């Protein structure tokens, strides 16, 4: 330690390098700690606006006529066992997912025939899918839309796939599928938490639906 102190006293550039490195580490720490707080603030502001939009006649008309734009409210996603209650938007771009969760464009709308595919965050922007790994077979997922609602039931334990495995959000052939398998819901999120190396998948089949 004495040698290190002596070296720093003798070398001005070493002192500057150490000071700069320390300052950089402090900045990185502030960013790492502050970004989740900032993203959650953005998420909360968006959710307030999205809930109002979801209840508007204009949104209902756009929904019925398939004229939703990226970032528009699409459905309210509720998972009672996890306490999740979030408005899902149309689109899965980085901007759209600031809402917390987004619907894959081009895939069936909530409660429709086919595989309704929704992606969401686990660690930022409200982290609505933070604990979906804790879901069990039989747990329910509810989607409330401008034109009605439907309830899905988790039919398999959450599982992990590679990011390029898009087969999980495709609709399987229905002729030999069990009852309800033509109305599916798939939730996707990054795993492990804080990493995008893999995707955690939750799949469910519809139990019932009702019109508004």
Tell me roughly what share of residues is in helical segments: 25-40%
Radius of gyration, Cα only, in angstroms?
A: 22 Å
Query: What's the CATH class label?
Result: Mainly Beta
**pLDDT average, as an integer?**
86
What would you say the CATH architecture is? Beta Barrel
Instruction: Write the element-wise H/E pattern from the N-terminal end onward.
Output: HHHEEEEEEEEE
Structural class: alpha+beta
How many separate structural domains? 1
Classify the fold: give the CATH topology: Sortase, Chain: A
Proportion of residues in extended strands:
25-35%
Q: What's the name of the CATH homologous superfamily? A: Sortase
Q: What does this molecule look like?
A:
With 212 residues, this protein is α+β, with helices and mostly antiparallel strands. It has a single domain (36-211), classed as Sortase (Sortase, Chain: A). Helices cover 28% and strands 30% of the residues. The protein has three helices and nine strands, in the order αααβββββββββ. The chain has helices at 2-10, 12-54, 57-64, and strands at 73-79, 84-90, 101-103, 114-120, 140-145, 148-154, 159-161, 183-191, 198-211. Strands 1-2-3-4-8-9-6-5 form an eight-stranded mixed β-barrel. Strand 8 and strand 9 (198-211) form a beta hairpin. It is elongated, with a radius of gyration of 22 Å.
